[in-house]
Amino acid sequence: MMTGFRLNLSPLKEPLGFLKLVEWLTAIFAFGSCGGFSGTNIVSLFCGDGTNKTLNANFQYPFRLSKFPLVDGNTTICNHSVPTTHLMGDSTSAAEFFVGIGVLCFLYSMVALLVYLGYMHVYKDSDFGPIFDFVITAALVFLWLVCSSAWAKGLQNVKDATDTEAISNTLALCKGSNITCEVTDFANMRTLNISVVFGFLNMFIWAGNAWFVYKETRWHSQKFSSQPGPGRQQVPAPI
C-alpha cells in the first residue's frame, strides 16, 4: 500500500471534505468572537446635590468579573468615601470551555483536511482511519452541545452581573441613600451573541458531517453488503 502524500482536491467537492472546510471556518468564528471580546459599561451616579459622576465597568474574556475594579482605591464619590469595589460574577469556566472546544475543532479540522487532500488513498484503504474519524466527530457533536449551552448560560450571567440592578447591589453607595445608580451606556455584546449562535451552528454542522464520515466506515458497508440484493431468493438450509 502506497502511503506517500498525494495532493488531490476532489474531496473538497464532496460533502465529506467540504463540510470539514466549513467546520474549520465556523470554529474560527466561534472562538474568535468570544475570546477576543472586551467591553465597558458606563455607570452614572446621580448625587443628591445635583451633581453627576460616572464609573467605567470594564470586563473582558475570560469574564472573571471579580478581577475587574468598579472603584479602584478609596475614592470620594458624592461626598461619600467608597472603598475598592469589584464587579461580581465569574463565567470563566464556561467561556474557556467554549473557546477550548472551538480551538480543538479548528486544529482537528486542519488535520482532517490534510488527510483528506493528501492521504485519502490511505484513509479509504484502512478501517482505522474512518472509524477514528467518526468517533471523534460524534464526540465533538456532543461537546459542541455541552459547551454552547454552558456558554449561553455564562453569557447571560455576564449580562446580569453588569446591568443596573447588579451594579447597584454591588456599590454600597447606591443602597439606602439619595444617590441613584444607573447603567446609561451598555457594552456592545453582539459578538458574544454571535459566538453562541456559531456554537450551536457548529453542533449541527458536525452532526451532519458525522453521517458522511459514518458512510466511510466498514459498519456502513457491512450493513449494505449483508442485505440480499433485488431478485435474490433466500435458499433454505438443508435439513
UniProtKB/TrEMBL annotation:
The keyword Ligase does not apply. It is found in: Membrane. This is Synaptophysin-like 1. It comes from Cyprinodon variegatus. The chain crosses the membrane at residues 21-46, 97-119, 131-152, 194-214. Coiled coil: none annotated. Keywords: Glycoprotein, Membrane, Transmembrane, Transmembrane helix. Belongs to the synaptophysin/synaptobrevin family.
